[in-house]
Amino acid sequence: MSVTVFKRKMTGLVEHSKSVYQFANVALLSSLPNRCQLCQHRIEQLDYQRLFPNQVLSGICQVCLAASLYQHEVCLGCGREIALLQAYCGKCLKLTPMLVVAPCSYHQGLGPLIAAIKYQQQCAPLNAITQQLATRINQLIEHKLIRAPQVLVPVPLHPNRLRQRGFNQAWLIANRLSQLLDIPLDDSSLTRVVDTAPQADLSGKQRRKNCFNAFELSDKVQYQRVALIDDVVTTGTTVDEIARLFSQQFIYVQTWCLARAEAPGLLD
Q1: How many CA atoms within 13 Å lie on the side-chain side of 129?
Q2: 13-30 pLDDT, tens per residue?
Q3: What CA–CA distance (Å, rounded) separates 239 from 232?
Q4: Which residue in 93, 162, 174, 232 is deepest, having the highest Cβ count within 10 Å?
Q5: Which residues cross the membrane (predicted)?
Q6: 243: Cα within 13 Å, side-chain hemisphere
Q7: Are 58 and 125 in contact (CB under 8 A)?
Q8: Beta bridge pairs of residue 151
Q9: Per-residue buried b or exposed e for 177-199, using 16+ beta carbons within 10 Å of the residue's own CB
Q10: How far apart are CA 61 and CA 179, in angstroms?
């Protein structure tokens, strides 16, 4: 068997496995009792589907979801509350850090649900939260505060971690966003080549050391604008390390995530 034929068969097998997983995930969610994981009340669909046709709310009720979203405008650089819909606060305007788009703060409601997606495989709320992220993205594009990327790139897991967890939550989010926004997904150009320690309990300095040279980017990337997709952005160490690789090829990067964990004291 030639190398080309082998690669084609392996690619087909991977795509088939992804499709099987997605189908199994949807089938499982539809068979479970539809109760909010935050308040435990039964989820009613009527009002939600009137606002979002063809969308099924699962894992979180409309009240808890609405209460957990940003109730004010935030700086896309640092997450600080700002008075007007604009990209940066005054401080970030001088620094122009990477844009981070999220529909909510990790610390104000949805944090436990997003953590449960990653660590407990409780994926029921993922579609509803991703829908809110897509709505936020469309709003910012409409107001010309961000430009639509040419491709979505999920933050990859190392193969060892992927085997252990069974799925990459960033890929699930990117796949759903690709469907909602009609933007292609590229999950082959960026790879994680170092099996890094979990970031959760590390300091900022330890996170930077942990992620340094942990990723590898193909030198054949043909895009000029990409959006990195992850579940949560905390210190930004991971996405900054990846953005460094893209910038070496003069590729503009922004980050889209389900929630943002702001720096201590920023929300006080």
Answers
A1: 40
A2: 554 455 455 445 544 444
A3: 10
A4: 174
A5: none
A6: 18
A7: yes
A8: 226
A9: bbebbebebbbebbebeeebeee
A10: 23
Backbone angles phi, psi at 264, to 5 degrees: -55, 135
Other C-beta atoms closer than 10 Å to the C-beta of 59 total: 25
Helix, strand, or coil here: 252? strand
Tokens (6 digits) for 160: 């060892």
The amino acid sitting at 28 is L
pTM of whole model > 0.70? yes
**Reduced DSSP (H G I as helix, E B as strand, rest coil) percent helix, strand, coil of the chain, to 5:** 45, 15, 40
pLDDT tens figures, 121-150 = 888 899 999 999 999 999 999 999 999 999
Query: What is the tens place of the pLDDT at every residue in 172-199?
Result: 999 999 999 999 999 999 999 887 766 5
Of 28, 52, 76, nearest to 260 (Cα)? Answer: 76
Residue matched to tokens 């099987």:
20
Q: Are 229 and 174 in contact (CB under 8 A)?
A: yes
C-alpha distance from residue 189 to each of 39, 57, 152, 266 (Å):
40, 33, 11, 35
With vertex at residue 67, the alpha carbon angle to CA 62 and CA 68, rounded to the nearest 5 degrees, is: 100
Q: Facing residues of 73 across strands?
A: 82
Sole residue written with tokens 């082998």: 6
For residue range 27-53, list pLDDT tens digits in order.
Answer: 444 445 578 888 888 876 655 555 555
